[in-house]
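Why should sequence recovery work at all? Because a backbone constrains its sequence more than one might expect. Tight turns favour small or flexible residues, buried strands favour hydrophobic ones, and helices have their own preferences. The token representation captures these environments compactly. In the example below, the structure is given first.
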């Protein structure tokens, strides 16, 4: 039993090392130019170790972005009630996206990896579904949860992609404001005044 935990910890460390190496390299050079050998070298492992854990660079990238989302964005699903402004978790996640802007631009762009894009979309959709379920808000009564989550996800990814494509790129605070406004939709401005 103890040997299994040691192996599990070693596997987790190697995978985290490979993920970190890819994210570091992606800040330094275009993703297309990064090789498996570069990643293995940066992570301090050999190529065969890479292939023991990952089939290719796209699967590694998908796992790395999953881990980053888990670390920075997953707490968004814990929101259960109305908040007066954008949650801090949104700022934290968009700060992470900005730190890796070239990588996310590539992943979310027209020539992005289908595997990675699907994983990013699935992760955001999962958080949206959890958050909407927890909120028990009547705002979406009559609309299937999967449809609402898909709409929220599409809107969020659309805003992030448009923000990343702007030159010069506006600040994270501006992007958070845009995302928050789009997610609230026009209903937030339709308050009745007496």
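From this structural description, the recovered sequence reads:
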């Amino acid at each position: 039993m103890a040997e299994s935990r040691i192996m599990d910890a070693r596997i987790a460390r190697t995978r985290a090392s490979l993920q970190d190496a890819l994210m570091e390299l992606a800040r330094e050079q275009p993703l297309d130019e990064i090789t498996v050998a570069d990643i293995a070298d940066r992570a301090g492992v050999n190529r065969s170790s890479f292939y023991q854990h990952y089939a290719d660079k796209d699967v590694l990238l998908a796992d790395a972005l999953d881990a980053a989302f888990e670390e920075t964005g997953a707490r968004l699903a814990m929101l259960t009630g109305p908040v007066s402004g954008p949650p801090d978790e949104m700022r934290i996640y968009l700060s992470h996206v900005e730190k890796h802007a070239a990588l996310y631009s590539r992943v979310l762009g027209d020539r992005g990896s289908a595997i990675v894009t699907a994983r990013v979309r699935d992760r955001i959709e999962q958080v949206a579904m959890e958050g909407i379920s927890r909120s028990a808000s009547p705002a979406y009564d009559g609309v299937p949860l999967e449809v609402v989550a898909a709409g929220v996800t599409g809107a969020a990814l659309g805003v992030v992609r448009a923000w990343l494509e702007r030159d010069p790129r506006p600040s994270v605070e501006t992007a958070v404001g845009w995302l928050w406004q789009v997610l609230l939709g026009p209903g937030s401005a339709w308050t009745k005044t007496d």
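A few observations help interpret the result. The mean pLDDT is 88.
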